[in-house]
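Hi R.,

Here are the chain sequences for the assembly we discussed:
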Amino acid sequence: MMSSSNPNRLNASVRSGRIDRTRVVNCTVDGTTVQGRPGDTLASALLASGTIEVGSSVHRGRPRGILTADCTEPNALVQRLDGCPEPMLAATEIELYEGLEARTLSGVGWLSGERDTARYDKKFVHSDVVVVGAGPAGMAASLAAARSGARVILIDQHRELGGMLLDGQSHISGHPATEWVGRAARELAENQNVRVLTRSAVLGCYDHNYLLVAERRTDHLPTSSGAATRQRLWHVRTGQLVLATGAHERPLVFADNDRPGVMLASAVRSYLNRHAVLPGRNAVVFTTSDSAYTTALDLLSSGARVPAIVDTRPDPPARLVEQARAAGAQVYPGAAVVATEGAPRISAVRIRGLDTGGALNGSPVDVSCDLLAVCGGWNPAVQLFAQSGGTVRWDPVVAGFVPLNTGGRSTRVVGAARGTYDLAGCLAQGFAAGAEAATVAGFRIAPPPVPQVDGDRPGARPRPVWAVPDESRPPEACTDHFVDLQRDATVADIHAATETGMRSVQHVKRYTTISTGVEQGKNSGVNAIGVLAETLAANSPGEVGTTTFRPPYTPVPIALFAGRTHGSLYDPVRTTPMHSRHEQAGAVFEDVGQWKRPRYYPRSGEDMHSAVLRECAAARTGVAIQDVSTLGRIEVVGSDAPTFLDRVYTNGFANLPVGRARYGMMCGADGMVLDDGVSMRLAEDRYLMSTTTGGAAKVLDWLEEWLQTEWPELDVYCTSVTEQWAAVAVVGPDSRTVVGRLAPDLDVSAESFGFMRFRETVLGNGTPARVARVSFSGELAFEINVAGWYGRALWDAAMAAGADLDITPYGTETMHVLRAEKGFVIVGQDTDGTVTPLDLGMDWAVSRRKDFIGKRSLSRPEMLREDRKQLVGLLPVDTDTLLPEGAHLVEPDASRRPPVPMLGHVTSSYHSAALGRTFALGLVSRGQERVGEVLRSPVDGSDIEVEITTPVLYDPEGVRRDGPAQG
Amino acid sequence: MTVLHRVETDLAEADTATAAPRHSPLEHRGAEFERATALGPRGVRLREEPFLTQLNLRVPPDDAVSEAVAEALDLTPPAANKVSGDEGRALLWLGPDEWLLVAEEERARGALRAVRSAQQDASGSSVDVSANRTTLRLAGPAAREVLEKVCSLDLHPRAFSVGDCAQTLLGRTVAVLWQVGPDPEYRVLVRCSFAEYLADLLLDAMAEFLEG
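And here is the predicted structure of the full complex:
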């Protein structure tokens, strides 16, 4: 009985199929409801419902139909509309689910503007043996390997294991092959060393057996299936790899070969046996090899008529001809289909003889039909083999490109993937390869015996025909002989490419766009090579060769590669122990590398400008506090630590006494400023180096590089301790009072606690602390360091100790202004990799007595040029005008016709509360000589007049560093 | 001059009548970890083990020195990517000349002093890094599956088991991974500033088991 909604569904007594007949699944295609059964694909449900036609072709608008039953489909491409719309999915690959909504496409889909909320993630696993493909060869390999105790992963694209065994009616050991498949699947499932990934495509096969596998986990379920991972990208590393990737059937190229109703013979079998769907009732079979005879017999046993089997071979195997005739099919040996008719579905074919030279002969026979099952031969699926570095060769016996070596040191190819198409051969190769792979991986095992296989024997040699001649037109005019259906590319297009002089298959591919669609040549590639070989009068497709096989093997959403690495997991956000306090204080944060640092702390109604002016004023006139925990910290330990620091810093550190700190500058080997910071000498053999916030990791790498590659003899060890320390800078004339309250045991007077000294103490709250008198603002300032876990307590204690003095938290913006007023540079802001310490006027930090990294570069002629850019202060003549950072500086009388000679640029620019005006720092050619000159900065069509000054604009005498005199 | 190094863990203890509260980076997320616990045969749970004492030891590949250092700690020198000792006090191998002492605070007293004394005339270093990292504990039958989502190492019991450790990337942060129990049960030591990220990452990876 055939139900009204599924007129082409075979009765269970004819074909049970691998579907659940007790349930109905409803979906919508182009607005029309289509019913299917669990186990259907969208394509099989359409066929069951009587629909074979899909979207028309992309360029020529020709009607097209479902051609395949697998990932090689060029026609039945749809846009999924439910969930997050997804383009260009093959209907042959979509498992039917309730609520599926699809629209057929004419070669072009669309990306949705919607956010894809589905979950994609990754998994990293390792294995002894990976088997790709769960057809008979792959299952045999997995069984053999798994029985050894080795870790095995079996990967297959489909929902069920079995491969081609599910499409046919073979027998193993006297029972239907599907029973063998079921037993094998159970054995694998029960073995805890085996992982079976179904609905999983190996996208890429890389060096050292590194595989990327896309697993579709919920695509077969209704889209409401919630937060589960939709697709998972498996990163698989394996010692041994068995490729049992099977083969893809080729279509045939002849006039009007694109008509709906033309279908691969193997797809017809698959629909019949796997889905119990009869795609046509009156089917012509057109083949170049044995395999399509089985399709003819399956059609006949399903109740279809097969009025003709057209075989290009003049002498097909007699037993097949006998079988076909006995079942009611007429065989036309040495013949070809030369034309089709239909409006649009195929209604008739024309058959003519094909002589041994490939020319048409004899008189035409017209046969009516509603289905044309075609078999142009088989392409071993060598894509993954080739991706992993394998070479393919043309094998004239199997008429396909096969692996040159099937048994590499760690990669083995078995079954149809190497051109073995008989079941017994596939099982034997699989068992052998699985056992070998396990043995090589260290799990010795002998291959199991190959079971008896009924009625199966190696096929006779095929006779490929790359393009059936047209009845009237020469090849260059064969504009309806389609080679690539998705791209609407024909035999005539290949001729046009060679007419322009192209010979390489790579060029022809790109010129014609053949094999550039979603099937990536699985369907069209070898036919194009065959046609090209004939056009170029090559001896075989092997002379032409293949195009390059590249990942991904099948299309996947880009979101899969992102996995969970988006949104809050895109990149770590690093925070200090005081972060919650900054949040509570309403800080506006800035990203410094991966760190979140408070930029400023606006009070109600304040913008950044006014908040920064207030914070600066507090630091200059009262007391202010900044979280400086993000500074990089490296402990440098060892008897050679003084020597080492002398070499990496431009200034001396060996002579730094214990208990003191010193500002240090580092250069690259090119003499350019690399990083800077204050280092403390904790002991004779122990320094605590600080780096810039953004430079911490880079500096540690730099130190390790020199220690490990240049100076391994030095007894020095570097340990990153950035997070070990939480630190606050307490800044301003009142900072001494605050620190005195925080550290009652510490004598903080100017006399006993000098500048660039540090002390260890225990704070009033019991916290051990290291207190240093360092200043990045020119003000009296202390940096208090405690173990990270006391950071928040330190912050709270400091805020409490300074409450009556209106202690003011300040952020990076205020820090920038304060340091710029003093002419202190920020590496990376005022330097850009082309600036030397001398350019910055920091000669005092460059030792003349000792050697250091970059020293020789500093004496190169280029570094000694007098017109180098030098750090200067910049004062806009109009005291309210703020120079944009990056603005250029030119001579006042410079012509404005490009190229305008550029003297320099602005590196930092701020409003200053202390100066009551705007100011900037910049790098200017001969800057030190130009102090007092007025230059111009062209900004937005007008000029800003700027006076050049020395960089230190505030407290040039440095009297504020020690704070107010104590009374 | 004031005595130096009082700020280091075991040298500070003598005068630490600390009134100040200590805070671990993930202390505010305990309830969230609790809620994320999945029970049963595919269960997994996460919690923070704060304030473990950690000393980064650089020990030159010289048997006499390394044995002296290990002996000072009453432990044996760890083999490559192995841990010697127990959860309460252990030496983790981090590199050819680098170990990490990880110990419960009460079992770490005097450790830094002992190591420095053993290292006195030899090259090497010992640095208190107790507050540099915090420790996450990931346990339960699905713990390995959770880590497999964020870690590219082979964590199969044949390749990584109790007493093994590795410095590796978890997602986008460096961490020290240490298997402490067969369930499996792992300690993950992470730099404090990356702790929130790692907690987010692991909770995200655990979600699938909670739903099941």
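Chain B has two domains: 26-50+132-212, 52-129. The beta strands of chain B are 45-49, 53-58, 83-86, 89-95, 98-103, 125-128, 133-139, 165-170, 173-181, 185-191.

Let me know if anything looks off.

Best,
T.
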